[in-house]
Design brief:
Layout (H helix, E strand, L loop, with lengths): L1 E7 L5 E13 L2 E10 L1 H23 L3 E6 L1 H12 L5 H7 L1 H9 L2 E5 L1 H7 L6 H13 L1 H15 L4 E9 L5 E10 L10 E7 L1 H70 L5 H29 L2 E3 L3 E3 L1 H18 L3 E6 L6 E3 L1 H17 L6 E9 L2 E8 L6 H6 L5 H4 L11 H11 L4 E5 L5 E8 L8 E3 L6
Parallel strand pairs: 11-13
Antiparallel strand pairs: 1-2, 2-3, 4-5, 4-8, 6-7, 7-8, 9-17, 10-12, 13-14, 14-16, 15-16
Length: 479
Amino acid sequence: GLYEMKIIKKDGGQTIVEITGANTLYQDKTANVVYIRDVTERKKLETALEDERDKYRSLFDDAPIALWESDYSGIKIFLDELRQQGIVDFHKHFTDNPADLEKTMKLSRQIRYNRAHLDLFEYNIIDEQTHKKERDIVSNYPENYLAFKDDYARLAEGEITFSKEEPIRTMKNNIRYILTKFTIAPGYEDTWGRVFTSLTDITKRKEAEDELKQYKDNLERLVKERTFELDESRKQLEEEFANRIEFTRALVHELKTPLTPMLGTSEILAHELQEEPYSSYAKNLYQGSCQLDSRVDELLDIAKGEIGILNLNCEELDTANMLHDIVDFMSVEAKKRSQKVIVDLHPAIRPLWADKERLRQILMNLLANAFKYTQEGGTITLKAYEAENAMIFKVIDSGVGMDEEIKRKLFKPYETAKGKKAHFGGLGLGLSLCRMLVELHSGQISVDSEKGKGTSVRFSIPYTHNKVQKQSVYEWKKL
């Protein structure tokens, strides 16, 4: 026999031993040979191993995801036989030979599964009847059938670990989506005697993904519809801008061609003629040609405004001197019409930070309009004063005035060219450009007019305008 017992050692300590005995002959006499083996260390190892097994069972059973431990050794033998018959594509083979798949399923032996597995597949109790039902549900429901077919085919084709997402059907006939991770335990690659499978329920995630996909599809559809609408609008706007820019380019070309020799000739005359009044006439002719050249350049400014960018070159200005220079230059036009020009300046005007040429453009445009639409003998007043930390400029005339319809469109580009009741005539760019240039200086422009009672145009240039700013961006859509 084989016995375990504790013995008391000489020092009083205890030792676990294993004892066995056997009869034999010794000097022709029957003797009993007794073997005593100290198994203390072995017992410690067995106890530790049992503890690890208990921990493993506890972790396995209490894991929050479904776990299987299976024995696929029978499956391996059968699949090896099929492989020896020359089968390579097992996915196709199982599809063409469902009986072999059924046999493979029956050769699977589950060693254990945990409580999460029972919850995932909605089991009530586990018994032989349940296992039979489980095999039936695998065979009868396409989701589970395809899942197991894929597992066995991938194993047969050499994969020892893989993961996948797939739908399964529970014992209560509900569909759930799972993330399956499948691996043959290390050391069992040759026998498949120990195979682990984990199944994580990702149904809520899949539902959320489906909702997100549906939302995304709807959003993409809406975006396509809106994009098509915007594209049509963009095409119309591009066509309109293209027509405007082409018109501007053509007009600039037509004006620049005769103006170039006029500039050269008038400049020579202004320098060569010394006798009065011809010297003054020549100088005025040259200055007028230069101003005409500037007006042509305004058309180019409008084209720049179409694409949203205009430049300012600001400096500190002596506003009073600039205003007197402008009035002196424009007085020739006023004399032709017997009009009176009044300059009303505040006595203590501070220097202004602004673009001198652009400010001249604004004032000369406004004065030119005032001269043009004021009757002979009328009065035009240019005022400049400080208010609300800004320089305020006013051009007031006693001319024909305008009605509300014209005032509403006054600062819109090309409106004068399109309207039959044009007030200022021409291309309708002068006041549009004035507004653009005022707003580039962070100012505001407005008009006050009544039919038959004259017009007053007011604009402001803030003293707080950023002196560091050398370039401003004008948004044409403001107009």
